[in-house]
Amino acid sequence: MSTVSGKRVALRPRRETTPVSRGAVMGLLGLSALYFLFPLWWLVVSASKPFGEQFSGTGLWFDGFGLFDNIARLSSQDDGIFWRWMLNSVLYCGVGALVGTALSALTGYALAKYDFPGRGALFGTILAAVLVPKVLFTLPLYLMFSGVHLIDNPLAVLLPSVVSPFGVYLARVFAAQTVPDEVLESGRLDGAGEFRIFRSIGLRMMLPALVTIFLFQLVEIWNNYLLPSMVLGDDRLQPVTVGLVGWNASHVAVPPPLVVIGSLVSVVPLVIAFLALQRFWRAGMTAGALK
Amino acid sequence: MTHLADPVRASAHRSTAGTSPPGRSRRPGSRTTRPGARRLRPLLFCAPFIVLFAGMYLAPIAYAAVSSLFALHRTGLGLTAPTARFDPLSNYTQALQDDAFTSSLIRVALFGVVQVPVMLGLALVLALLFDAKSARGKGFFRLSSFLPYAIPGVSAALVWSFMYSSQSSPINRLLEPLGAAVPFFDEDLALWSVANIVTWSWAGYNAIIIYSALQAIPSEILEAARMDGASAIRIAWSIKIPAVRGALVLTTVFSIIGSAQLFNEPTVLQPVSGGSISSTFTPIMSAQSAVAAGNHHYAAAQSVLLAVAVGVVSFAFFKLTERKGQA
Questions:
Q1: Which of A253, B8, B151, B245 is packed most tightly, with the most Cβ within 10 A?
Q2: What is the CATH number of domain B91-326?
């Protein structure tokens, strides 16, 4: 390692980048940032304008300040149902991702660390399930849930969202990488039971990886729209995505500026979680790409 | 129990050299648990997942497959409710002759053929730029491209619907002085307006996956190429892109699957599209309308056809890239 970096220093003058290539690279990167940030910039600017001014002007620069008034209006619309939706989203995502991560960890650990009858078949089935579009399950699930009267019941959203084949796949990869067999073996020699070994050794070593799985599931559940929109007709049970689309489609009943403000407020928690926990995303995506 | 389980255990140990058989070096009997129970213990770890997986993945597949074989039959003057009768081909022939459904399939295929290469091309270029020696402030650019991934699909579609809508479009406001305007919801343009939202949401995510694969290229190889006088573009083309082939195959397959389930974005845009996005714009939307019309057998048949189409395309793509890789 040290010899490589030594060479690097010695060679530096020969392959210093030219101003032309730097200009080209930075120009392209700048364009990409413009594309990706433009709609979000518009959203922040528009939500901060006084109520009713959301669609005036080019929408690219601040013009008066009404953010707090806007949030107050958002909170009072339909008896404050917006915050109820936010709470629902947080609950569905939090509970769903937590239970889903626990199930993925248990299964992935067992697949990586034990041999048992049907292991290959189970893993093959899970891999195949990763490749099936999830939306295809929504229609039959809806029909099955109406058969057992689970419509308008939070379980109809939670039960499907805790099953994550991709989470199991990641957990298996992570368990194989981070939990050495020798450590488990010494735990066994000390007379610890298998579940105890999992809890006190396996789980602890997999913890950073489990945060990654948790985050992936969180985004997936927060993103899910079709299933909750079908199984939750009662708007007091709906997550914020379903609620906002309902407002947007209603046109007259709910003023469009509220949809703009609601959209901004609804993405803030995810953006914060995302910025704060960046390194865990990278870890998960690296595993997904290389394995 | 014990005498039955032991030989099985022994053979299992032999067949799994290199993995991690429980208690490989440990004598049986050194524990209080019976060996047979021990061998099945891992299944207990998996049991909760298996049960839910069966209920939430396998059961719906079976349900849809069986349901699609029954067709609704209306009797007489349609005064009584229609009854479902076993008629395995009826829904499938209806679907294949249904112009709205077949054109939604063609539309999504066209979407996939254009949007997936454009998005992944963009993602690849971004990943190479993130990896370029000349780049500064890489962290900021990586983050800005990845940020849309944190925005839920329907929220992204809502925001873009304001970008597109004739009353609010900041893009058209900027173009106004030039006397130009983009008719985002034009009959011919609506599909590509949807494609843009999907690209915006996922290009950065895919770029980061490809970038992660780029990081795994041994620096000695890149160093050697540079010493041989290869230009940055040449190195990207001959070393970097072949090295991230696996990541490209993976992201392509996931993008194909994503295209097939296109639903959220067109559904959000539909009310403001002025009719260019119909209620049967994509196959999933078409199946949705069949459910809304009370015919879930027909919806099931459409879902099965879509699933088979996606399976065939993904499998064919895997096979195609596999052969190329070995040659």
A1: B151
A2: 1.10.3720.10
